Amino acid sequence: MVVLTVREHALQVLVVERAKPPFFGRLALPGGFLEDGENLDEAAQRELAEETGLAAEQVHVRQFRGYGGPDRDPRGRVVSVAYVALMPDLPIPTAGGDARAARWEPVAGLLEDPAVLAFDHHRILSDAVEHARDMLSHTTLATTFCPPEFTVTQLREVYETVWGTELDPSNFHRKVTRADGFLVPAGAKAASDGGRRANLYRAGTATQLYPALLREHHSKPGARQEP
Amino acid sequence: MVVLTVREHALQVLVVERAKPPFFGRLALPGGFLEDGENLDEAAQRELAEETGLAAEQVHVRQFRGYGGPDRDPRGRVVSVAYVALMPDLPIPTAGGDARAARWEPVAGLLEDPAVLAFDHHRILSDAVEHARDMLSHTTLATTFCPPEFTVTQLREVYETVWGTELDPSNFHRKVTRADGFLVPAGAKAASDGGRRANLYRAGTATQLYPALLREHHSKPGARQEP
DNA sequence: ACAAAAGTGTTAAGATTACACCCATGG
DNA sequence: CCATGGGTGTAATCTTAACACTTTTGT
């Protein structure tokens, strides 16, 4: 499970400290084995609940890739099916449950050094983040990083944090408020953050986003032939 | 493996007739088990070679999803990692090799009746086709359905066949010939098909397509709130 | 000459970008 | 009053869609 959230202006991922070999004491992505009678999605939901105490409500869980290299686990051949989960910055009841010492860690730091995470989890995290970035372009899932009611600026900060870019506040505002089914006005206004109070919105019913939000400001198309 | 091609104006998929139970005599997608020392991509390449006699050249192979429901194989718990392969309409040397009687079957017919394919292969095929459709929008992979040199019209027919839509020939022509790195002029001209002879192109070096090709003519955005 | 396919031109509508500008709030 | 953030207006540029129109070929 690559459980992502936006916390303290950074994309963060849930990691556990390994309590036994191999990779004793190293950081790893949470996960586990399939149990009898479960399909893959159910197993992912169960693992998520065990690690975070959260049910599938308010969390978007999605399979994104399988990993099956022969040497990825020194104990033997293991095939893993990886899932990304996007969720708001909720308190994680690590104290209760099986208390596996799950904690948030900024993604940027983990991606810098491929040797921090155990197994091939650096690669898995990297793939998951890339997957999540694409999802924000084409779907309305950015709202799953937000609390139930949020402002347009909060939503923009999610995009800016996950993409690592800056977006024009006025154009972003128009785009998301006009996209059909993306945002529903909640009626109330947020507390002031030093200026005019912003309108609050809830996530709408749309899942696909059209037109898509562009990730880079006029990124160059494909590969060039003559630079 | 969901091996797709465009043949006789239809999207077709490589199927095998099962030679032993379960599902004896029924149609199924080709596939097999991981061997020692292989990672998932290598296993997919090997299976593709065994079924079609073709190497990874001229074929695009890509993992798209894992399947692990507890009852998907009556013999016991099997987790499958599914791959799509896109290839041109090449003759398949089924006679040689392990002669598993692989053959092309139109996708449309197979998707109509969920009970034709063995196991959960109807679902897998359906997911693969959806994945392939999305890939054509955002990447230049449509060229992998074409022979080494092809005309713009041939390429357009690939899109029309896979998407099941009709596209405006003139607008399509402009779009793909201007997309940077998509098509490279091959110099020659194709034989006439009843009219003016078309220029031949080869696939360019770009892999991503920007701007993306739109699948539906002005498809309605997301979900509507008030119909 | 004519039909059919290939490819170019044109125009209106929609999207994107950049940025000026007004609105509302707290200090 | 005024700095700060929220939100709307506007014009240049790009993209799309629809379709008229020219070019090239086989019959």
UniProtKB/TrEMBL annotation, chains A, B:
Q: Does the keyword Ubl conjugation apply?
A: no
- Output the Pfam families linked to this UniProt entry: NUDIX, WHD_NrtR
Domain named Nudix hydrolase: which ranges? 1-129
User: Where do the TM regions start and end?
Assistant: none
* Entries under InterPro entries matching the protein: Nudix_hydrolase, NUDIX_hydrolase-like_dom_sf, NUDIX_hydrolase_CS, NUDIX_hydrolase_dom, WH-like_DNA-bd_sf, WH_DNA-bd_sf, WHD_NrtR
Q: Which UniProt keywords apply?
A: Hydrolase
Signal sequence coordinates: none
Q: Does the keyword Transcription regulation apply?
A: no
The family this protein is said to belong to: Belongs to the Nudix hydrolase family.
What protein does this entry describe? NUDIX domain-containing protein
Provide the species name: Amycolatopsis silviterrae
